[in-house]
Design brief:
4 strands
Length: about 110
């Protein structure tokens, strides 16, 4: 058993690591919960892309103040499956997704 002043530091560090992991897991779980809710509620397809032998479907919604985009992929002869969740992305006035901010030539 660890005793003395080092034991408090050790347990404090363990607690910090645990809480960071807990918050990350909690955030991920909430994000996927909202994605499932979006797929149950939505009736409109917002984005569609066909590439080769796959189709991509994009569903967008604002749920409880969170802007969420869910991507579903369907292969040519397969079933659709969940691909990703994109929470709170930034868009410009043309509603294009921004992958950066600022001027890339100057940065």
């Amino acid at each position: 058993m660890i005793t003395g002043p080092d034991s408090l530091n050790y347990f404090y560090r363990l607690w910090i690591i645990f809480m960071k992991n807990y918050q990350q897991i909690r955030t991920q779980a909430y994000k996927y919960y909202k994605a499932v809710e979006l797929l149950h509620l939505t009736t409109t397809l917002q984005e569609y892309q066909h590439t080769g032998n796959a189709e991509y479907f994009g569903f967008i919604a604002i749920l409880e103040g969170w802007k969420i985009k869910v991507i579903v992929k369907k292969t040519k002869n397969g079933n659709p499956h969940f691909l990703s969740v994109i929470p709170n992305w930034t868009t410009n006035k043309k509603r294009d997704r921004l992958l950066h901010k600022g001027n890339l030539e100057e940065d």
